[in-house]
Amino acid sequence: MHSINKPRSRSREALPLSLARVSVVVPAMNEEKNLEHVLPRIPDWVHEVILVDGNSKDRTVEVARSILPEIIVVNQDRKGKGAALRAGFRAARGDIIVMIDADGSTDPQEIPAYVGTLMSGADFVKGSRFLQGGGTDDMEWYRRFGNWGLMQLVNFRFGGHYTDLCYGYAAFWRDVLDKIDLEKVDGFEVETSMNIQVLRQRLQVQEVASLEHPRIHGKSNLRTIPDGWRVLRTIITMGLQPNPNRTARPRRRIDFTRPNAGWNRHIGMPNE
Ligand SMILES: Nc1nc2c(ncn2[C@@H]2O[C@H](COP(=O)(O)OP(=O)(O)O)[C@@H](O)[C@H]2O)c(=O)[nH]1
Ligand SMILES: [Mg+2]
């Protein structure tokens, strides 16, 4: 038995995070000026950082390599943020995959909150700007309104309790990729598609409060009307498809009789 007063041989910070390997996927299109505000803020214990270059016309790739020489750079097969994430997920080797933006809006220093929530039993963790503790400085009123309306539709049709929908910060265990299909999801509807599919798969989905900062340099690539329409079309199309798991019982919650059942399940460690 451990005595409470006995000093630990390893630091507390190094313990849980060293067990699972974390890949961070960063889609970036013409973000040369923003990367210096993003890449250095990624925690050191992250196993790998994957930059998906959206055929940038500026020095995005060179700048990324100069800041983080070990960064892995991949290309995407089609245009759009969804295609970029798909390529990044395919290249990722970690047990956990975290997706963040390259424009300075999502703060890599929040990664421990996502990883910690996965460690404690969640399968899929999404950031929310509208939970207590979260917020945004990067959303015009009409985008806020659109996001809210689309989220209501998703909650109504797919039985979620989301407080946010179209936000680029999320993290998940890599086996989630076996359960969701992103093959035809090329654009900004990617987060919505993922958020719906994880609900349909009855995964343990959890939100964490997140602060979204203003994009530092440049302009958003999102076009409110066409991209909002793509999101709406995704919700309608998926809503018309029958749920293959409709009769499945909701996934068993964390089994407290098994030690560390949360992360052991995902990284294939014995439970005893
Ligand atoms: N590789 C790649 N990255 C993209 C593409 N579209 C957007 N991004 C990146 O995705 C992130 C979010 O895009 P952004 O334009 O800021 O949209 P917003 O945050 O919704 O306003 C940023 O890091 C962009 O550089 C794309 O087609 N390819
Ligand atoms: Mg942005």
Tell me what the structure shows.
It is a single chain. With 272 residues, the chain is α/β, with parallel strands linked by helices. The protein has one domain (20-244, 255-268): Alpha-Beta Complex (Spore Coat Polysaccharide Biosynthesis Protein SpsA, Chain A). Helices cover 33% and strands 14% of the residues. It contains nine helices and nine strands. The chain has helices spanning 14-17, 35-38, 60-67, 81-91, 111-119, 141-158, 190-200, 224-240, 261-267, and strands at residues 22-28, 48-53, 72-75, 96-99, 124-128, 135-136, 170-173, 205-209, 211-212. The strands form two sheets. The protein has a seven-stranded mixed β-sheet with strand order 3-2-1-4-7-5-8, with helices on both faces. It has a two-stranded parallel sheet with strand order 6-9. Strand 1, helix 2 (35-38) and strand 2 form a beta-alpha-beta unit. Helix 6 packs parallel to helix 8. Bound molecules: guanosine-5'-diphosphate and magnesium ion. Magnesium ion (MG) binds next to loops.
